[in-house]
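4.2 Preliminary Data

To establish feasibility before requesting continued support, the project team ran the inverse folding procedure on a target of 324 residues. The structure was first converted into the token representation described in Section 3, and no sequence information of any kind was made available to the design step. The complete token record follows.
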């Protein structure tokens, strides 16, 4: 039994496909298949059920794969201990970030990381919460910046900040003249939502739960529309298709200053003026999300996690409540 063979079975279990598992391990499929067959013969157990269209892990195989992942993590820990003897922050840190945080936090965070820990480059990945949690569990990433709540997976958690939401409305909308807004007023509007899988979609539906029943085709004409990214949703708002909620860090700095006086215009100029977005804070109860840093409890680079937190706290983070 070798670490390489353990790496192969973990990859196949994750990808549920021998070809994709081989690709993830940067080897040919025959090489991977022969190594796994050799391991199965050595253990005298069947790890995978090989069907025509998919690969499934046997019940005993699942237990062995979990133990293999633990062994691989421990092997990595030995390497990390050796590195820490030379420089506790040496080597890349694999960081995952959800889609509705990455574009707004990462530019400043990367600058801060380069300034303070240039020997620890950030290997970045954006993805859905569910996918990042899985990659944390399997060791594909070291840590992740997520928004609560998410399933308890026995991770170590460090709160970073509480971020308020703001409403985004077309500048031509009657609500754009307001200085603030309430969740009750949004119920009358066409709400633009992120697609299924985005945790921010769930946050919006917590504020306006009545839109959940419109977020499928079951009702015929839909009262809500879905976009693939927050920036796509903003373009839809700018085009006058509806309103949405956005996290505070996604609001451009110049969008919160005094509202410009709009002059009458025709043709192209009028279209450009109509594309403006007005961002409104909430009156009374302000919906927020808590953003946290999560990592496996078995992860041994404590100094790297501390350095990353310091880099995040060094970011500007306008409008949020920092947590320690």
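Position-by-position output of the design step:
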């Amino acid at each position: 039994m070798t670490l390489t063979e353990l790496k192969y079975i973990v990859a196949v279990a994750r990808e549920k496909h021998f070809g994709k598992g081989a690709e993830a391990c940067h080897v040919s499929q025959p090489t991977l298949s022969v190594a796994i067959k050799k391991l199965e013969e050595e253990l005298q157990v069947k790890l995978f059920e090989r069907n025509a269209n998919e690969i499934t892990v046997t019940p005993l195989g699942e237990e062995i794969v979990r133990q293999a992942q633990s062994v691989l993590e421990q092997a990595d820990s030995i390497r990390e201990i050796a590195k820490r003897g030379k420089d506790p922050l040496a080597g890349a840190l694999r960081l995952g970030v959800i889609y509705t945080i990455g574009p707004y936090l990462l530019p400043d965070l990367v600058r801060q990381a380069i300034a303070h820990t240039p020997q620890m480059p950030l290997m970045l990945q954006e993805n859905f919460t569910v996918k990042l949690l899985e990659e944390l569990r399997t060791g594909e990433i070291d840590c992740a910046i997520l928004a609560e709540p998410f399933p308890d997976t026995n991770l170590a958690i460090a709160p970073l900040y509480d971020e308020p939401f703001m409403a985004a409305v077309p500048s031509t909308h009657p609500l754009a003249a307001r200085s603030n807004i309430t969740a009750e007023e949004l119920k009358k509007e066409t709400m633009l939502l992120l697609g299924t899988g985005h945790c921010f979609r769930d946050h919006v539906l917590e504020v306006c739960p009545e839109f959940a029943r419109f977020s499928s085709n079951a009702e015929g004409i839909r009262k809500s529309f879905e976009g693939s990214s927050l920036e796509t949703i903003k373009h839809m708002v700018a085009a006058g298709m509806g309103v949405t909620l956005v996290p505070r860090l996604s609001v451009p700095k110049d969008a919160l200053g005094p509202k410009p006086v709009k002059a009458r215009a025709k043709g192209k100029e009028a279209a450009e003026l109509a594309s403006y977005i007005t961002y409104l804070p909430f009156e009374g109860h302000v919906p927020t999300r808590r953003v946290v840093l999560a990592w496996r409890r078995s992860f041994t680079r404590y100094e790297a996690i501390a350095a990353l937190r310091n880099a995040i706290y060094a970011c500007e983070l306008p409008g949020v409540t920092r947590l320690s």
